[in-house]
Structure formats: structure tokens, C-alpha cells
Structure prediction request, 407 residues.
Amino acid sequence: MKNILPSPLQYKNNHLTFDGKRLDTIAKKLKTPFYLYSKKTLRHYYGNFQKTALSNEIPSPLICYALKANSNDKILSLLKSMGSGADVVSGGELKKALKAGIDPQKIVFSGVAKTSEEISFALSCGKKGIYSFNVESIEELELINKIAKKLKRQARVAFRLNPKVSAKTHKHISTGNKTHKFGLLKEDILEAIDVKEFWSNTTLVGLSIHIGSQLTELNATIKAIAELSKLALSIDVPLEFLDVGGGLGIDYTAEEKIKLASIDTYMKTVSQALEKYYYSKTEHCPRVVFEPGRILVGKMGVLVSRVVRTKVSDNCHFTIVDAGMNDLIRPALYEAYHEVLPETKSNKNLTTDIVGPICETADCFGVKRKLPKLTSGDLVVIDNAGAYGHTMASRYNERDIAHEIVL
Ligand SMILES: *Cc1c(COP(=O)(O)O)cnc(C)c1O
Prediction:
């Protein structure tokens, strides 16, 4: 079954449009490269995620959007207005989430290196601090307890379980195996629960997992939920939530368009796995927390660039554009595929490498792509750049950070 995820980009009369507006008109007065985001598309994905959680009978779902995918202020405000919470991995992201008006009681804090300063801040925001510290080591738990005691607060914590599964994704974005730095092993969690002095100012309210990103099939997710459930059943503490993490992928490639699990399939899978391994075996009914990033924002954004010039070296043809790996590092870092589309549709009679201005051979958006012949000033669009684009941008080669335009 063809699984087409809605996108704001469409060709109309051979010209690219974004949310129905001509791209050349949008770009006319703007300096390239720039990111372009569609609120309409974001509304679609968030709405769909929430709706399918409810229709698959997930108990009191809480969607904690993973800010690291895209932390644009307007995007965060829109997510907040739709009821989203946040998954943050630094004090900086926590501040951004709060600035967007997200209730601290909808914020979970993940990450292996939370500092004393970040922990104090997260404990002090709002009346009760944040919803949960998703704890990734015993040392972290001890530190949270110590700081909470000093601040006369009670910290809400969840253990992030390392379920020892291998997610089928790029090795740089797989996080759920014991060789990865993330999460705690089951035996270490059980041991920590029995150490009284860790719990004077902390309360165990949940358990979490997050096994990787850009997941297209869900076998590892089912296994991880089974492990999470086993652990939840083996502890006496009544939990408020089970956090199943994020990770659902989008269709960057034609192959992924066919095999990618849809949001509905994902929700059904999560719901059935939780029912089978957990809810059917207990009286307790903790709510479910989700931490989606890419699936909510990936499709809503593109990177708009202009051709600087073309170049021929013997039998190699290069189309050199003004966007580089400092703007969008995914191809260089993860060997990720992004579709590159010319503003004007015409015969794709040329095989060319699309490369950027950075002095690195890895600064390449596509190898041996079929494109029409382009010349200086022509617009090209790098598609599916809403997630892990701008948030990973750097100033390498003393370049400016690309602007973000939200339509
Ligand atoms: C990155 C991350 C996410 C979001 O991952 P996506 O693949 O973008 O959905 C969720 N939870 C944690 C802990 C993360 O580190």
C-alpha cells in the first residue's frame, strides 16, 4: 500500500508551490538559504497523532513533543496551543518550552548529562517543577534527590529503561541497546528502587523508553514495550505513566514511502503491545506519554536554496547551491537522503551531484541525481527538512544561520 504523507510542496503548472503559494514569489525578497515551514501541515500531523491515540484507546495520552527536532518559537507556540507538552534534553530547551507557555506539568526532561544547574531550574519552575525527570543513571538519581532536598521540593522521576533491543535505523540514531549510553538496565533500576536514601525527596512516577529515531518498522518497538511492561509489572510502586518515547519515521525515500508505518499503524501497534504485555495483567491504568519529534515536524519544512553555479570535472557534473551542510547536516552525518526539487519542472536530462559551499567533501545533498540543467540564481528546494535541520545548524566556515519563515 502506498503511504503518502501530506506535504506542503506541490507542482502546479510546472512551478513549485508551498501551501498553494508560488515558491518563487515567497522567495523573491528573501535571502537564501532559508527554512520554510507550514503551520497547516504541522496542525495536520499533531491532530492526526492525537486523534489516533484516542481512537486506539490509549489512556489519557500526553504528547510531549521532542524539541530537539525543531525549536522554532512560532512552531512551539502552535504546538502549545494544540495542547502539546514537551520532551527536553537541556536547560536551554526547557527555557524555550516554558517561554512558549507549555505547562511544566507537561514537560519531561531526558538526557544523560543533566547538570546541577539544569536540575535546580527544572525543580523550581511552576508550582511543582516539571512532570518528570527521565533518569538515565543512578548517579543522576542521587543528585536529583540531593538537590530536591536542598530546595525542599519533591522531584518526580521516571527511569529510562534500556530495553536492549536493536532498532533498525542508522547507527548514529539507534539508542536502545546496552552499548549505547542511554537508559538504565532493568537490574540496576530494580536495585535502585530498594535503596531508601535515594527516595527522600524523589517519587517514582513512571518508566520510559526511547529506542531510536527514523524507525520505519515496529518490531523493535514491540519488543521494547514488552520489556517496559515486564519491568512495570515487577515493581510495587503504582506508576502514573508509561512513556513509550518517540522515533516514528517519515518517508524521505521512495522505498520508505512504501514500507513506512503510518501514524495509525504505530498507534495500533503501541496500543496492542501495551494491552497484551501490561494492561491485561494488572489493575493499574497508568497514562501513556509519547515523545514524537520528527513525525510531527519533518514533513512541514523545506530548505530553500539558490544555485550559485555549475561545474564540470571530466564526466562529473556538479550543481553548486548556496545551502550547505552547516544548514542541514543530515546527509553528511547520517548519510540521509533528501529529495532535491527544482522550482521549475522540466526535463530531467542531467545527472548531477548537488553540493554546497562548505570546504568538506561531505557537503553534498545528493549524488547522481536526475535534474534539469540549472543556472545561477535558480531556486531549488531540499525537501523534508522540518526536523533536525535548523536545530542542528552551525556557523561552520563563518556562515550565517539560515532564517526560518513560518507560513
Ligand atoms: C530525540 C528524542 C525523541 C524524538 O525522536 P524522534 O525520532 O524525532 O521522534 C524522543 N525522546 C527522546 C528521549 C529523544 O532523545
